[in-house]
Amino acid sequence: MIYITLPQKLSGGGVHQTMAQSRCPFLNRVSANFLKRAGRSLTLYGQHCPMMSRLLCNNASATIRTIDAVGKSPMQLRISGRSYNTTAAEPKKGGECPFRWHAALKNSLKQQVMPTSWLKPQVSYGHESFDYEGYFDKKIKEKLDSSTYRRFRIVDRNANQFPECSYHGNTNSGTDQAVSQQATVWCSNDYLGMSSHAEVKEATIQAIGSHGVGAGGTRNISGTSSYHCMLENELGSLHDKDGALVFSSCYIANHATLSTLGQLMPGCVFFSDQKNHASIIHGVRNGNCKKEIFNHNDPQHLEQLLQKYDPDVPKVVIFESVHSMSGDISPISDLCDVAHHYNALTFIDEVHAVGLYGQHGGGVCERDGLLDKVDIVSGTLGKAFGVQGGYVASSPKLLDVIRSYAPGFIFTTAMSPILMAAALKSVQLLKSEVGQVLRKQHQSTVKQVKDALISSGVPTVDTPSHIIPVKVSCFFLITV
To answer: In what order do the strands lie in the sheet with 390-394?
Structure first.
């Protein structure tokens, strides 16, 4: 490593006084104390300065002291390998000082420079100003007028009496939150009550005692714990894949995976089911590539669209197993066969199926023996598994690409180890005989509710899944 020691005349206040007397526009603005601290870097800079180069030339060259690099940091070793010209340069003749910016600007240009007053916030919403609050109020009124304005219900679930809760009204009603009434949650997607399972809670408590409550960083820095690795291996095994990647939600998992694939693969084309979830739509849109929308659960229409493209064009066919609104189950085998015939990857969203279908809770694909037909599986840890987060399971190389390129995975704090511990225990339980019993109970409850609704004259839609759509003709009835 090289250290440069300035001659005495250049290392103290003498140089400041000498150069200040010469009207140096830089030194007139800095203190002698600054020069003492920045002297070494100023020596190198001075070779290009018309004023400092004259002083350096008139004084002895800077003294060079070399220190052995043993035991130094990688950054110091890198710097030590560089060579610097520390010999005083010849005085610059006719050079222009870079700090004389005002001399380089013409009067006409200076007049065009916007004053800093434009940075001050506008406090008056006059005729020429944009009325932010008025615009926001208008957009909210549009939601109210269409009866699509959302009010958040304040619900404190009872972990010891699933699915009971304490209901405190909603965030817009002005209800006193200290006053509550007991209620039953009919709209939760904690399908099997795993969020309050005794073993899941115990695993969470143990993780808190050992590791605290936060991850402490992104996955790329210090946020990857042993719980992350064990959970990802468990999820890969669940879907008969080599591994998985865990995200903060399945929305992020879908968006990050699809948008990254679309941006990376040259000429990629997405083929997306007409009724895919918003996370898929968002990921496809941000993939910045061509997309084709095929009719809902229609393999024939998908084939017509695939026929338009050469086999060497990268293609991804995207669909869900269980659709959350209609309760439909996709013809997975037919869609996969068509996709692979035209050399396309298959991406299936099993969010509303993982934990609920299959011998080990691997979803509809496991139940129907189709795990080998899907290339990429996305799922959630926040529904049947009762915790939080999402994931994708696939081949090692594809996962490594997403891990290395997806901003939604790289630039965010990792999921907390306590959530990973809870999810790990929940997945393990639902893969076991415990899960088989819970799934049978769940299907029995679904049938009981369907029969009760139909016998009561409630207009339900018969579906092959556990989702029971009840159509309400008036928006107001479901938003009050």
So the answer is: 243-247, 390-394, 376-380, 345-349, 315-320, 269-273, 290-294
pLDDT tens, 322-342? Answer: 999 999 999 999 999 999 999
Residue 240, class by beta-carbon neighbours within 10 Å (0-12 exposed, 13-18 middle, 19+ buried)? Answer: middle
**pLDDT digits over 191-207, tens only?**
999 999 999 999 999 99
Question: What is the DSSP-derived secondary structure letter of residue 149?
Answer: -
Task: Catalogue the active-site residues.
Answer: 383
Residue 375: name the closest of 192, 240, 183 by CA. Answer: 240
Token digits for 188? 């939760």
Using alpha carbons, select from 439, 378, 465 the residue that is nearest to residue 193: 439
Q: The pTM is what?
A: 0.74
Q: Can you name the residues that pair with 157 across neighbouring β-strands?
A: 165
> What b/e sequence results for 385-421 when a residue is b if at least 16 CB atoms lie within 10 Å of its CB, and e otherwise?
bbbbbbbbbbeeebbebbeeebebbeeeebbbbbbbb
What single-letter DSSP state applies at residue 161?
S
Residue with tokens 């068509």: 338
Identity of residue 315 = K
Query: Is omega for the bond preceding 98 within 30 degrees of 0, making it cis?
Result: no
